Amino acid sequence: MLQPPAVLAATVRPLPAPSAAEREEEIVRAGFNPFKIDARKVSVDLLSDSGTGALSSAQQAAAQQADESYAGGASWYRFHDSVRDLVPYRNILPVHQGRAAERVLFGALLGPGKISVSNTHFDTTRANAEMVGAEARDLPCAAGIDVDGDEPFKGDIDLDALERTLSGPDGHRVGLVLLTITNNGLGGQPVSLANIAAAGEIARRHGVPFFLDAARFAENAWLITRREPGYADWSPREVARREFELADGCLISLKKDGLGHAGGVLAMRDDALADRCKPLVIAGEGYLTYGGMSGRDLEVVAQGLREVTDPGHLAGRERDAALLAELAHQAGVRTVRPSGMHAIYLDAGRLLAHLPPERFPGHALACELYRRGGIRAAELGSLYLGELDEQLRLRTPAPFELVRLAIPRRSYDETHLRYVGAVLDDIAKEPEQVPGYRLTHAPPLLRHFECRLEYA
Ligand SMILES: *Cc1c(COP(=O)(O)O)cnc(C)c1O
Description:
Blueprint: H1 20-29, E1 44-45, H2 57-64, H3 74-84, E2 91-95, H4 98-109, E3 115-118, H5 123-131, E4 135-138, H6 142-145, H7 159-167, E5 174-180, H8 193-205, E6 210-213, H9 217-227, H10 236-245, E7 249-253, E8 264-268, H11 271-284, H12 295-307, H13 311-330, E9 343-347, H14 348-351, H15 361-373, E10 375-376, E11 378-380, H16 382-385, E12 387-388, E13 394-396, E14 402-406, H17 414-429, E15 437-441, H18 447-450, E16 452-455
Parallel strand pairs: 1-10, 3-4, 3-5, 5-6, 6-7
Antiparallel strand pairs: 2-8, 7-8, 9-14, 11-14, 12-13, 15-16
Helix pairs in contact: 1-15, 2-12, 3-12, 4-5, 4-11, 7-8, 9-10, 13-17, 15-17
The structure holds pyridoxal-5'-phosphate.
């Protein structure tokens, strides 16, 4: 059946079109780090889908009725009710963005010697666990590490490994089981309801709190309706509620499926744990009825949480990702399969086979997208995940060399995606022309945000 488009894009902003010489000057100035590039010199920005989407007219209208009271404002109650419509947890703690929820929860739950176990920790999640002295341990399922496999739920946690960890010698040190839905660190792949239920059952049996890192809870829910037997007739909202019912709590970056520009929430069933979290929210974020968000932010995400489970919106996200993947394939560039919702992941290791991991092929492709087309993207490979020696040379490469093309929500249309496809096609015609890189500066933690490189 033919489906008309789900939205009318009604606000327009001209995009920058820097010349090749301007782009080269800019990327050199940025130390070949995409995070350091001036956005005014970026034509199509696929660096992140976090807080980069367009607001709907209903969100902008909601922002107009913001109540900026310090405590107990009307906007807080509207936010609270909107979150509570999705999650069955009594304790709703607002924070300014997702990573603040991590810091608060880990501050209350983890500490030196403790372990957080996940399908894959997101980068700031890992950093926040390590900053309180805990270990972040990833247990992705075997299919998740196979870039080419077409399994529907490659985001799942390895249940056997989880059981072994919890009943093994380290079991008493595990303070948290955290499932990231969708699994952003591993190709944006979804987690099935069956896997969420089974992981929760194992965690509960061992008395360990079980939380969801649910930045993309709606996109995960949509892929469950599309791929998991038994849920084709469920609405994405029904599946989203089911996801949360299966857990003891969640942390959500509302810059993704909250459709906001700022905001986050930490929610849980356990009142005693919430009582330990509250002072951390007040001291680090703000009072318990705003948590670092303005009334305007609270209104925008309260409305965003109602819009995000719309099947038209979610179907459009899936179509955009599938189109971008198809354009990459037509250019001869492989991607992590199957394509998900918020991003596609290009297999740079295969495309740039002349570059060994030490010359960072994923990073090289990300830089080349900017040099050739003003397109900004992020590497997910040895620059992000590899181990370095003291001379900043790569000691242990990452298991894959990928580039993530994240698709901001409700921002770009097919014309932009086809332009990206054309630039990729241009690069893939002569991949051996793409230069490699070496690191000249790299901090020990969250290296990819602050590092600098040069041609090598
Ligand atoms: C974005 C994200 C976070 C952190 O949220 P911020 O709002 O960027 O601080 C945590 N986990 C996942 C899976 C995310 O995608």
